Every structure is written in structure tokens, then in C-alpha cells.
Amino acid sequence: MSLRLYRLHYEILQFYQFMIPTDEEHAVRQQVINRITNVINQYLPSASVRKFHKEKNLIFIVFS
Asked: How far apart are the C-alpha atoms of 41 and 49, rounded to whole Å?
């Protein structure tokens, strides 16, 4: 592997480690989702609330 490809690979790995949430961040995010879901279900009992992200890889990037 060339030095440039190695550096790119290493940079991608660093970015992934930077973006992955800590256990605390993940727990807080889940609490917020649960609270919002409870409020919505309180006012709209027939509503279905779903998370919109890629949970499989645990990277939570917000798109606007």
C-alpha cells in the first residue's frame, strides 16, 4: 500500500473514531428520543414515532 493510501486509510479510521458516540452520548440520545416519543404519544396516541438514522454503524450524522 502506498504511503498516500495508508495516510488516507488512517485518516478515515480517525474520523470514524471521532464520530462514533460515547456510551453516555448514546444513552442521552436514547433518553431524548424516549421523552419526545412519550409526548407525541400523549397527544397523538395513534401516532407511530420512528428514529431516522443509521443505527447499525452507530454514527449519528445530522442532515439538514
From this structure: 8
Tens digit of each residue's pLDDT (9 = 90 or more) over 22-37: 889 889 988 998 999 9
Instruction: Please tell me the distance from the alpha carbon of residue 52 to that of residue 4, in angstroms, as a whole number.
Output: 35
Instruction: Answer whether 58's CB lies under 8 Å from 21's CB.
Output: yes
C-alpha cell belonging to residue 50? 420512528
The beta-carbon contacts of 55-59 under 8 Å, at least 24 apart in sequence, are: 58/20, 58/21, 58/26, 59/16, 59/19, 59/20
Asked if 13 and 4 count as a contact pair (C-beta separation under 8 A), the reply is no
